[in-house]
Amino acid sequence: MGNARLDYIWLDGYEIANIRTKAQIHPDSSYNGSVEDTPKWGFDGSSTQQAEGHDSDCILQPVRVYPNPFRQNAYLVLCEVFHRDGRPHETNTRNLIDRDSEAEFWFGFEQEYILMTSNGRPVGFPDGGFPEPQGPYYCAVGAHRVEARELVDEHWDACLAADLGVTGINAEVMLGQWEFQCFGKGALRAADDLIVARFLLQLITERYDLIATLDPKPISGDWNGSGMHSNFSYDYLRDVGGQDYIEALCEGFRPFHQDHIDVYGAGNERRLTGSHETASIDQFSFGASNRGASIRIPLYTTTHDWKGYLEDRRPASDGDPYLIVDRIMRTVKVAHEEALKAV
């Protein structure tokens, strides 16, 4: 077997971070995909909003390696970005996450997205018009009810072949809108897998001449927006819980509502209107099985002695998963202690 191909992946410095990639051949023919044996690399940060031209070199530090589902003897290399002097780059949001506590957190992201044609319309929307109103499209089957299922299934197959924690897919409420769920035991693993799953989705759309937009509300009017509901749990919530504890914990999120909104994605004010299964961006709320709340207490939790997980429904589809898990973990640290005092 020849030397392996390595496709490096990182997030750039734009307000809504784009995924960037470049590839090289590993110098050692015995390379087997270990992070420790994956070399650092560099790139021109002046072309990605991460450096000025007079000092443009940025460093790619490999942090996780996945098998490349499209090629033999090839790997996907997820990286953090560093300055050339070794400092974490300001856009390196992964570096914010607390390494001492991230392992006990489990996250499940519900990544919604909309497939768009080159004319800027969701796939299935007629030119200059609209399909029939929402209702028949969610989890639907059949022509004119779903679009681009072949692409969606190809994406899921690729995620599974790459050993990502993508656990399910479904057509969403708006025609041309889809969702995949990505789960990880450990905040870093969950967020890493989501970034690589997004990368594979974008890669596959190249062959279909479609655009997978993460814009939370690309079509105005009586159409659902796209979110990234973030389900989370940690040791105490899974093992002990209790109704009084969970309700006090949710209440402990209230003082930090704006801090969450600030890092939950761009354009979220167009989505969080209080309609279309969302809470208002200006108000915090929680409730059991309430999809119109900021935080939903799922049926699983209430029927398992109030132990399990919670769903934060505020993050937008274009949210940075590293910022989301960092903010949730920091809020939990404070709210957990206050909730223990209340029960």
UniProtKB/TrEMBL annotation:
It catalyses: L-glutamate + NH4(+) + ATP = L-glutamine + ADP + phosphate + H(+). Keywords: ATP-binding, Cytoplasm, Ligase, Nitrogen fixation, Nucleotide-binding. GO terms for molecular function: ATP binding; glutamine synthetase activity. GO terms for cellular component: cytoplasm. Its cofactor is Mg(2+). Its EC number is 6.3.1.2. This is Glutamine synthetase. Pfam families: Gln-synt_C, Gln-synt_N. One of its GO terms (biological process) is glutamine biosynthetic process. Coiled coil: none annotated. PROSITE patterns: GLNA_1, GLNA_ATP, GS_BETA_GRASP, GS_CATALYTIC. Residues 27-54 are annotated as: Disordered. Residues 88-343 form the GS catalytic domain. Belongs to the glutamine synthetase family.
